[in-house]
Amino acid sequence: MSIGLIGRKVGMTQIFQDDGTMIPVSVLAIEPNTVTRLRTPDRDGYAAVQLGVEPSRKLTKPEAGQLRDLPKVAVIREFRVEDPAAYAVGQTLDVSLFAAGDLIDVTGTSKGKGFAGTVKRHNFRRGPKTHGSDHHREPGSIGPGTTPGRVYRGSRMAGHMGDERVTVKKLRVVRADADRNLLLVRGSIPGAPNALVLVKKA
Amino acid sequence: MNVLDEIVKDQLRSDIPDLAPGDTVKVAAKVVEGNRERIQVFEGTVLRLTGGGITRSVTVRRIASGVGVERTFKVNSPRIDRIEVVRHGVARRAKLYFLRKRVGKAATLRERRTS
Known about the structure:
The complex is a heterodimer of chains A (about 200) and B (about 120).
Chain A: E1 4-16, E2 22-29, E3 33-39, H1 41-44, E4 48-55, H2 61-67, E5 73-80, E6 92-93, E7 103-109, E8 114-116, H3 118-122, E9 159-161, E10 165-177, E11 182-186, E12 196-201
Antiparallel strand pairs in A: 1-2, 1-12, 2-11, 3-4, 3-6, 4-5, 7-10, 7-12, 8-9, 10-11
Chain B: H1 3-8, E1 24-33, E2 36-50, E3 57-64, E4 67-74, E5 80-87
């Protein structure tokens, strides 16, 4: 329940800290977000701030009509907040919302892995590669036999992996650069470069 | 310029000489002992160079009291005081792992003459 920002993942690099140790950082490009709408419990049943980013000329008339005279933004997301009255429609928020040392949660869409087996998807152990084994990456047993005569629901099996919403919590902000609209975060974040991410205070 | 390169640009060091596998180098690194900081020099042969840009690192091998010692340094680290090339060696490959199996004179490389 706190305000956040919409941005895009740029990639990862490493930087030296003042004590000479090197740390891995993810770089996020967060252009200033415009407050496009406020959600109040009275009218909408919940309290949130709607933010928009990335101006586009290719909006449909219904989309553009929602924004009226606000900048024509292509990406719109909402953040639940305690008190939406603290924000005003048309106001812009940028990375100065965060400071070095803050803890944040980053939400994004993980890289798709396609149809993945149990070894990759659920960290099952694989069988022997040699010595006559033909049980290389098989899942093994998936449950008991005649009793109960069925496979329990929720058994971990092969299937589609990745391309799902993932939140990485409590990442440390290394640097917030309001001049260049960049946010440097220690550690990795979900998604490929250029993927949309939501950044929230932890 | 790429955004990622731009972020690390001010941390890249321009005072480091060109290094090549086979070179004999002196690496002066800052070490902290208790609450005192001093500079420790490690001299040896460049075994390999890895990484590009800010991640560039150099592995240096030397024989210290009969035991082979390898240390890896981040070339752009602020903990490096200076790097000095003492001698250029002739190396026909990028990673000189074969030196690990050699002892004595066999572990030395011919000097590369640069005019």
